[in-house]
Specification:
Layout: H1 34-39, H2 48-58, E1 63-71, H3 74-86, E2 91-96, H4 103-117, E3 121-127, H5 136-144, E4 148-152, E5 169-173, E6 177-181, H6 194-202, E7 231-236, H7 237-252, E8 271-278, H8 284-297, E9 301-306, H9 313-324, E10 328-334, H10 340-347, H11 350-355, E11 359-363, E12 371-375, E13 379-383, H12 389-393, E14 397-403, H13 405-420, E15 422-425, H14 427-431, H15 435-446
Parallel strand pairs: 2-3, 3-4, 9-10, 10-11
Antiparallel strand pairs: 1-7, 1-8, 2-5, 5-6, 6-7, 8-14, 9-12, 11-15, 12-13, 13-14
Helix pairs in contact: 2-8, 3-4, 10-15
Length: about 450
């Protein structure tokens, strides 16, 4: 008599950043070669083989998100983040390239200190260079409020690591709700709604004192000069993986290692999400390959919004090849920038992109700081990665790749609305620009590896 066969236990996903250190991509999966592989998929990004291709590149599964909510205005994103912090029961993990000692920063700091006063474990990781202007008294006040604060790669003793910066923008609450995107913590994204700020102040007594030179609060409706950026909120398994990403940077900054249990078996309901993260020595090659696969698999449209566009020539070639296939390729780039030399470096690529059939728009309504991609009304990428050398070689970054018609529809709608505040760059007008401008663009393009 044969014994009954026991069901095999579901495999638990270990808390290790992926791709793992030492992961080597085979030549056919490296950018830009992977685009040729992706172009053979019968249904493009909607083909079952596309998700498998992403898994092969990154070495990680696409985890289902119960909810995915994109935000395109700072006050909306920060209101959602503050609500999540207010609801935290066990843990808040916040990682930001820039955490400013301004009105928005102080209000968020008050929320963090209030959560700590309830017994929530609150950890804040800020990049030492990005947050250089933030006063030491701000960090000391946060620590006095029970918040564990670390600065990533301060000048001393990390003198030889100054090129390696933590450019991520991550908030994870109870390893169940997470946010990421392009938004740092600062006033430039627009004032917070007064009701949200006041309710946060009433919820506890731990506060960060206001500065005497605090900026005057303007209503969100009046903040027409607020930077244009994108952020996204996810719930479910991807939030657990983002806690793993945070833990990597936290340990690098000298924080006590976090205990993160393996991910318990989970269902398949929800939008598939790939947490695409990187840091020097891990993930940069895979991030470039995932972008190449997405562009190569595109059949109808590739719409890219990016704030610091100083790309490698291989990316411009991928975009030109997609346009040659009949794909509607559009670039929405800054018309004015807080880093003008990077904008001019991008200008050095415009002529060949326009010649290849890529449509270019420069956003004039305000400073553009968003980093997003939407392809074929199905694939969306939102995160911190700029299309420059620094993001693909030196920075720690985090992005979400979301496969969802509904999310892509929101991203496309936002892109089309942004075009209202942009002007198209025509090939004829570009070639007719002044000689001084052309020389400056050429010189700035030569500097792209250093920007």
């Amino acid at each position: 008599m044969s014994r009954a066969r026991r069901p095999r236990p579901s495999r638990r996903f270990r808390a290790i950043p992926r791709p793992i250190v030492g992961h080597v991509l085979p030549p056919e999966l490296r950018a830009p070669h992977v685009a040729a592989v992706a172009s053979t998929l019968p249904r493009g990004v909607r083909d079952p083989g596309f998700e498998s291709l992403l898994r092969r590149i990154d070495g990680a599964p696409l985890l289902p998100a119960a909810e995915v909510e994109p935000y395109f205005h700072g006050h909306e994103a920060f209101s959602a983040m503050r609500a999540a912090i207010a609801a935290a029961r066990e843990e808040v993990l916040l990682e930001s390239y820039i955490f400013k000692d301004d009105e928005v920063g102080r209000e968020l700091a008050t929320d963090l200190a209030t959560a700590a006063s309830r017994g929530v474990a609150v950890r804040v990781l800020a990049d030492a260079f990005g947050s250089f202007s933030t006063r030491r008294t701000f960090w000391r006040t946060l620590r006095a409020g029970g918040v564990d604060v670390r600065l990533f790669h301060p000048l001393l003793p990390r003198l030889w690591n100054q090129g390696y910066r933590d450019h991520r923008k991550i908030l994870v609450v109870d390893r169940a709700v997470a946010f990421t995107g392009g938004m740092n913590v600062g006033n430039e994204y627009g004032a917070l709604p007064r009701a949200s700020a006041e309710s946060g102040a009433r919820s506890g007594s731990s506060t960060v004192p206001p500065r005497a030179d605090a900026d005057h609060r303007a209503s969100p409706d009046a903040a027409i000069d607020a930077w244009r950026d994108s952020h996204v909120r996810v719930t479910g398994a991807p939030a657990w993986e983002m806690a793993v990403v945070f833990a990597e940077g936290w340990e690098r900054a000298g924080g006590t290692p976090l205990t993160i249990e393996p991910l318990a078996p989970h269902g398949r309901e929800g939008a598939p999400v790939l947490v695409l993260d990187s840091r020097p020595g891990r993930g940069h090659e895979e991030s470039a390959a995932v972008l190449g696969a997405i562009i190569g698999a595109a059949r109808a449209s590739v719409w890219i919004t990016n704030s610091y566009f100083a790309p490698k020539s291989s990316l411009t070639q991928l975009l030109g090849d997609a346009a040659a296939r009949g794909v509607d390729v559009r670039l929405l780039l800054p018309g004015k920038s807080d880093v003008p030399i990077v904008r001019h470096a991008g200008h050095g690529f415009f002529a060949e992109l326009l010649h290849a059939g890529v449509a270019i728009f420069e956003y004039e309504a305000s400073i553009l700081h968003a980093k997003s991609v939407v392809v074929d009304g199905y694939v969306s990428v939102v995160g911190s990665t700029n299309m420059d050398y620094r993001s693909f070689h030196w920075n720690a970054e985090c992005n979400l790749v979301v496969l969802s018609d509904a999310v892509a529809a929101r991203m496309q709608e936002a892109f089309e609305q942004d075009l209202v505040g942009a002007y198209p760059v025509s090939a004829a007008a570009w070639l007719a620009r002044p000689l001084r401008h052309r020389i400056g663009d050429r010189l700035a393009r030569w500097l792209t590896p250093l920007l």
